[in-house]
Amino acid sequence: MTSRNSSASFRWVGLALLVMGAFGAVFVYKQCARTESPITSVQSTEADKAIAEDSAEAVPKLAAVAVAAAAAAASTNPAGVGSKRTMATSRPRVDWESLIERTPEAALQQLKGSAPKDDAEAQRLSVYEVRALTKLQRMGEARARAEAYFERWPSGPDIVYLQSLTGAHPR
Amino acid sequence: MTHATLRMTRSIRSPRWVALLACSLAAACAGQDPAGNVNGSGGTSTGPGTGGAAAQAGADTQGGAGGADTSSTGLGGTNAGGSATGGAGVGGSTGCVDTCPFANGITWQCKKRFFYGLNQAWINFAGDFGGGTRGIAANTSRVGTLFQDYSNNGASVIRWWVWPNFTGGGVAFTGNSATGLKSTTLADLEALMKLADQYNLHLQLTLFSFDNFKTTTNPNLAAIATDAAARAAIVANAIRPLARAAQASAYAKRVISWDVINEPEWAVSGAGANGDQAFTPDTTCTTITQPQMATLLKDVVAGLRAESQALITIGNSAMKWKNAWMAVDQDFYTFHIYDWVQQYWPYNTSPAGYGVSAKPVVMGEFPPAGFNNGAITYATIMSSWYSNGYAGGLPWQDSSMVINFASFKAFADQHPCETRY
């Protein structure tokens, strides 16, 4: 009788430890996740949601998050630095960031054929063109485009970015 | 979803994993640029004057630079063979003693130092030398204020452009043939040297730029470079008189080096030299071939050597074309690096790793805020170069690209003797 009681107690204690351990593991995991390299807030929030779901769904969701984040970044800050404008356009938005990364030649062709609706968009597309040319290591052309930017927009928000990227400087 | 799966999914999209994957891919693709061309980084250098054994000798040939008295200076040996016995800090014939030689540094006036300073480049583009009221002599107060600031923040060398094109009026021409210096050119030179002396700075004077090849500029250096008579004329009637005046100045020791041309690669088309990738010229430049550019540079260097004891270098735009001017007589190599370069020819590979250890290597331009939008900081870059075989670093700056002088000074303060001539 005593030994049966004691064995039951042990089982309860074991179960309790198991539950505590599980909670502990979840807590430790979350702490680890928090201390990983910083990523953008949009990516982090959405990605955290995706990771909490089944792996079968998580991967495509993460990809979508990345595209959305890139699009969000592109719409507000094409160059990644300097720019403060926001682009509001009713036309279908091209994800230039991704396009340049994946197929810079195609992006370049598309950029060359694009008709910017206003000066701000022309400015933004000009930066993407420099980026596509840089990605292709066609640096002479990239720099010539950067120089054209400096001349056309001497106070443009992307001047420092273009200088850092290409080494071309306003004269 | 198990914990392990969770963790793996989480980890795979973490930046660290992405970086690792990128590194693996980069390693797998080593030797190729994005276009699939073979790049020269890390390869065996076949250019003249390179080679590990000659490296120190090449660097030390400057060890013989004379004493502080400019009238008696003389490089102990600028010959490529490196027969001089300069050694770390011991100045050849004058027997001077260097108190804090920097092992990989550039020797000038018996001081072997980490070549530390910045680009001022110009106050009035193409007008600083010979521009009359736009010239330095007419703007000494402004330049003096800048120099005081630079000196107070630990700069020792200032890179300044002379004739990035000929529109400023400093050189007289008949057609493409230079006939002499004119306007305020020599007064501007003297004023700049005097200010450098006043604030204990040294000047790296950059004679030309790829801008001299812009299709819109006239006279165009492309036409001069490809015409033997015009080439001889500019050397005889512009370069040599300028160098002669600098050498004759009471402040001669303030011109530490001549940078023959800023980023000539942007005005060169065709195949690269000795295994380098093909050039990708600026589409707004009239281009010449690499041998034609090399001929121009050699002629200019010969003119400088004839008149001046200052050191000589060429402002190469990128390690991508590291072999382009190896055959031109230089005392040290200069390369520029911006993000487009850093991506494939990273800052933290040593000169030896790039096969350019025959002579000291100075990084003559780079973004003052660091690489990748500041992810790689100024302090990290300078610290890396200082400890990784480089001879110096000069950040770029202009009205929009500004130097953080706290960071700039912090580096100088860490090495107060080794960074100051």
Give a verbal description of the structure.
- The complex is a heterodimer of chains A (171) and B (421).
- Chain A is an all-alpha fold and 171 residues long.
- Chain A has helices spanning 2-34, 41-51, 55-76, 96-102, 104-113, 119-135, 139-152, 159-166.
- Chain A folds into three domains: 1-36; 39-76, no CATH class; 90-171.
- Chain A is elongated.
- Chain B has one domain (114-414): Alpha-Beta Barrel (TIM Barrel).
- Helix content of chain B is 31%, strand content 15%.
- The chains are: A mainly alpha (171), B alpha/beta (421).
- Chain A binds chain B through residues 25, 29, 33, 36-37, 39, 47, 51, 53-55, 58-59, 62, 80-81, 134-144, 147, 159-161, 163-167, 169-171, and chain B through 1, 3, 5-7, 9-10, 13-16, 33-35, 121, 125, 164, 211, 263, 266, 279-285, 317-318, 336, 338-341, 344, 365, 367, 369, 371, 373, 396, 398-401.
List the helices and strands and how they pair.
The complex is a heterodimer of chains A (171) and B (421).
Chain A (H helix, E strand, L loop, with lengths): L1 H33 L6 H11 L3 H22 L19 H7 L1 H10 L5 H17 L3 H14 L6 H8 L5
Helix pairs in contact in A: 2-3, 4-5, 4-6, 5-6, 6-7, 7-8
Chain B lengths: L2 H10 L2 H14 L23 H9 L29 E2 L4 E2 L8 E3 L2 E3 L1 E7 L18 H13 L4 E5 L9 E4 L2 E5 L3 H14 L3 E8 L11 H5 L2 H21 L6 E8 L27 H18 L3 E6 L16 E4 L2 H4 L8 H4 L6 E5 L12 H10 L4 E2 L11 H10 L7
Parallel strand pairs in B: 5-6, 5-14, 6-9, 9-10, 10-11, 11-12, 12-13, 13-14
Antiparallel strand pairs in B: 1-2, 3-4, 7-8
